[in-house]
Design goal:
This protein has 13 helices and ten strands. By secondary structure, it is of the alpha/beta class. It has a five-stranded parallel β-sheet with strand order 8-7-6-9-10, sandwiched between helices. Strands 1-2-3 form a three-stranded antiparallel β-sheet. The protein has a two-stranded antiparallel sheet with strand order 4-5. Strand 1 and strand 2 form a beta hairpin.
């Protein structure tokens, strides 16, 4: 049983008490200073957070949460034989010192009164790295507008540390950071939780597309292929007013511009949800007027609903869509071929097996992700199986 907790040490002459991290685990007993301080009256020992009566509570709590998560992950993933007090403390101090290096200067954000009467443009930064896009947006304020930084995401813990130090600590912003692979199934859910129903005006990010090829030259199961598609999934979910997608200049001319057109086609396929009800209403009226086309129009109606749902709800609609088409196929098959042919014909079998594969889309996506992970981290292309 791993226990990672915080406690306040003895207060200094300014009545500020250092916040210490303490670990109680089998064979491990450690305490370390986090480098942060607060007053006893501002500390919530039950919830292990600094109360909002302390004006720096946001960035301190974000760091404490980050530090706890990283330490727990380290303890859970490191072989027990390697979990010595020295090694664990080294890991903790590395995280703390990395943050300190970026926190020598504290520059509080301007007070809200300086932004009164100005339009707030809310943005998020995906594939954030060290914050190049973020920094540019924050410096691009004008006399009538300013950018409000809601969330950044990257898979690298050092990127998270850099953002916490720069934006939450130095600038005093209430920025959220999601350290997670964008291809993971629960990425959208976790992102939406951190956004807490806030409207996003701008999404920016640079998903790699270098491996794209229409000529069949690209590597199979290349992780980079997935990132653009998942970036678009975020766009489809958030429906921002604008988005910025950065990539290498060569993407514009690759394969005679066909890759650029494919990307633009994917982007243009995103439906404006503000007008979505009109499309559904139009299809509904068509179903009433053209009853002989009811099956096709029902499928079209279900397919349209793919655009506004995610995760579990989307899976349910897809299951219904596949079931409708499969039932229609079963009804039509006896009218097209005899029973014996329906069991032996390669075309009929292909369609039948295709439905089975579509039903197992979630399982296949999981397997595909595992293969991509194996290729990305184990150099699996460098063997005779590739």
């Amino acid at each position: 049983m791993i226990k990672v907790k915080y406690y306040l040490d003895k207060a200094d002459k300014n009545r500020q008490s250092p916040i210490h991290l303490v670990i109680r685990s089998k064979g491990v007993n450690i305490k370390a200073s986090t480098g942060e301080k607060t007053r006893n009256k501002d500390w919530d020992s039950k919830n292990q957070i600094v109360k909002d009566s302390e004006y720096t509570h946001i960035y301190i709590n974000k760091f404490l949460s980050f530090l706890r998560d990283e330490v727990v992950k380290y303890l859970e993933t490191t072989p027990h034989t390697l979990l010595t007090d020295v090694k664990v403390k080294e890991k903790i101090l590395t995280l703390i010192n990395s943050r300190k290096e970026n926190c020598d200067v504290r520059i509080l954000a301007e007070e809200d009164k300086n932004y009164q009467g100005r339009e707030k443009v809310k943005f998020i930064d995906l594939f954030a790295g060290a914050g190049g896009f973020s920094e540019g947006f924050l410096q691009a304020e004008t006399g009538v507008k300013y950018f409000d930084f809601l969330l950044a995401s990257d898979i690298n813990e050092n990127c998270e540390l850099t953002h916490l130090a720069r934006y939450n600590h130095q600038l005093g912003l209430d920025m959220e950071f999601l350290k997670q692979d964008i291809t993971e199934p629960n990425f959208l859910d976790n992102m939406l939780k951190k956004l807490d129903n806030k409207t996003v005006d701008v999404v920016c990010g640079g998903p790699p597309c270098q491996s794209f090829s229409l000529a069949g030259k690209r590597k199979k199961f290349d992780k980079k292929d997935d990132l653009f598609a998942h970036y678009l999934k975020v766009i489809r979910q958030l429906r921002p007013k604008y988005f910025v997608m950065e990539n290498v200049k060569g993407i514009l001319t690759k394969e005679g511009g066909k890759i650029k057109e494919m990307i633009l086609q994917e982007i243009r396929s995103i439906v404006d949800l503000q007008e979505f009800h009109q499309i559904l209403h139009f299809v509904s009226n068509l179903k009433k007027a053209q009853k002989e086309q009811s099956f096709i129009l029902e499928c079209y109606s279900l397919r349209l609903q793919f655009e506004r749902e995610i995760d579990k709800e989307l899976e349910k609609i897809k299951e219904k869509y596949i079931a409708n088409v499969e039932n229609k196929f079963r009804q039509l098959t006896p009218k097209i071929v005899d029973y014996k042919t329906s069991k032996t014909d390669i075309n009929i079998s292909t369609i039948r097996h295709g439905f089975n594969l579509l039903k197992r889309e979630t399982e296949l996506a999981y397997i595909r992700k595992k293969v991509i992970h194996e290729k990305a981290f184990c150099d699996i292309d460098n063997d005779f199986f590739c």
